[in-house]
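Database export, one record per block. Field names are fixed; values are copied verbatim from the stored entry.
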Amino acid sequence: MKKQKRQTLLPSEKQDYQHMIDRAFSIVAEGQKSGVPVFIDAEESLIQETINEITLVLMQQFNKKSTFVFTTLQCYLTS
């Protein structure tokens, strides 16, 4: 939630955040290797923006030749 609010993360929180990104990359890489697409949906509005940012990076990296990373549109969110 701090990440979403652009607050400074504690060192342990930064480590947890990086671990989450690393896990997401490894899941998508394994999916691509196996030919299995990955669908990402945060299911929690408090972290949606952060999940969207990570998902966008994953999509830019892995969706070059074909689509492996999918996400949802959160129509209930407003600007």
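Remark 1: The helical segments are 11-34, 48-62.
Remark 2: DSSP finds two helices and two strands in the chain.
End of record.
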